[in-house]
Design brief:
Strand order of the largest sheet: 7-2-1-11-20-19
CATH superfamily of the largest domain: FAD/NAD(P)-binding domain
Shape: globular
Radius of gyration: 20 Å
CATH class of the largest domain: Alpha Beta
CATH architecture of the largest domain: 3-Layer(bba) Sandwich
Number of helices: 10
Bound molecules: flavin-adenine dinucleotide
Order of helices and strands: EHEEEHEEHEEEEEHHEEEEHEHHHEEEEH
Structural class: alpha+beta
Helix content: 25-40%
Number of strands: 20
């Protein structure tokens, strides 16, 4: 097995950026994702007449390395600026001058752009990982198996940890302890198609950052949906308390809460709803470094938004750090 090959589990922003950097360096890279499409938590759901970003809503830019990437996405038409601030919980406009970006046709525009030209296989749920020959072999639920000299695990860490320990490999105790310290909040996300005008104030988002609601956005005002289409995110405590409740109950409760927040009767203006349950949404406790190399020979690296900084920017930088680390292993 040549050591300049890598299997990447996860086609979210971290996995795709790592895969791109390794591919550009001449590595043979295979990316596997259990989802129907790429993007992970940068997720857009389309119905006939509407589109909903139901995971990440927007992203900001803090550091230069990420700024360079975002400039490229803007030039390629994969990203666009959405606003410079959103209404607060009281409904007051809150512009602070810092750009908030979106995917041009929804958040998935960016991962789709990044996946272009890569060997990305969607609909492939990895179920076990084994240490074989000079590298790693991962097996998928479909019966497919893929081998590589290096392995990069990019899923939310509890999922990556379970995969790393699913086969014949024993993770070093120190690495396991550090990985077990990374945690996430859940998020219940309601998508609601409206019949009529949107009660969300300009520019299409209310950033509550609290409980029981965290966010209400209108995907039409955002510029990605033909019809008013709300994304309502419950706060972490509310999401945890109601995570396993019946969809009908969660839907009704979130429509009532969002209606109360917006001063509108959402229940009577909604024509269609759908609920997404994100078990892992925001990171609550992260690893200090931008990635974790659990084994150098053969390389096994963990990355994603649980490492270094959080959110889309943190995940992107973590993917790049993982690729840098892998390239460092073989030079
Ligand atoms: C509701 C919500 C709101 C958010 N809002 C914002 C926001 O406004 N701004 C912001 O910056 N960030 C936001 N975030 C966080 C942001 O989406 C993430 O930080 C970022 O997208 C994480 O990228 P990642 O590559 O680390 O992980 P992911 O995007 O989670 O990618 C991991 C991938 O691994 C795949 N996978 C998992 N297990 C397997 C398996 N066994 N086999 C194959 N594939 C597998 C998954 O399908 C997924 O595609 C939000 C997240 C959520 C859920």
């Amino acid at each position: 097995m040549p050591n300049d090959s890598c299997v990447v589990v996860g086609a979210g922003i971290s996995g795709l950026l790592a895969a791109r950097e390794l591919t550009e360096a001449g590595w043979r890279v295979t990316v596997l994702d259990k989802g129907r499409g790429v993007g992970g938590r940068m997720a857009t759901r389309r119905t006939g007449v509407a589109a909903f970003d139901h995971g990440a809503q927007f992203f900001t830019v803090r550091g230069e390395r990420f700024e360079d990437l975002v400039d490229g996405w803007l030039q390629a038409g994969a990203a666009a600026e959405w606003s410079r601030g959103f209404a607060d919980a009281e409904g007051n406009a809150n512009p602070d001058g810092h750009p908030r970006y979106r995917g041009s046709e929804g958040m998935t525009s960016i991962p789709k752009h990044l996946a272009d030209g890569l060997d990305v296989r969607t609909g492939e749920r990895v179920v076990s990982v084994d240490r074989t020959g000079n590298g790693w072999t991962v097996a998928c639920e479909s019966g497919e198996s893929v081998s590589g000299g290096a392995l990069l695990l990019t899923a939310p860490v509890p999922q990556s940890l379970a995969l790393a320990e699913s086969g014949n490999y024993a993770l070093p105790e120190g690495a396991r302890r550090q990985l077990e310290g990374i945690s996430y909040d859940p998020c219940l996300a309601l998508m609601a198609l409206l019949d009529g005008s949107s009660p969300v104030p300009h520019p299409g988002g209310v950033q509550i950052k609290g409980e029981p609601l965290d966010w209400i956005g209108d995907n039409a005002m955002k510029g990605i949906s033909d019809r008013p289409a709300l994304t309502i995110h419950a706060g972490p405590q509310w999401s945890r308390a109601h995570y396993d409740d019946h969809e009908t109950d969660v839907t009704r409760a979130l429509l009532d809460l969002a209606g109360g927040q917006l001063g509108a009767d959402l229940v009577s203006s909604v024509v269609e709803t759908s609920l997404a349950r994100w078990r892992y949404s925001w990171v609550t406790s992260s690893h200090e470094e931008a990635c974790l190399m659990a084994s150098e020979e053969p390389p096994l690296v963990f990355c994603g938004d649980g490492f270094g900084q959080p959110k889309v920017e943190g995940a992107a930088l973590s993917g790049l750090a993982a690729a840098d680390g892998l390239l460092g292993c073989v030079t």
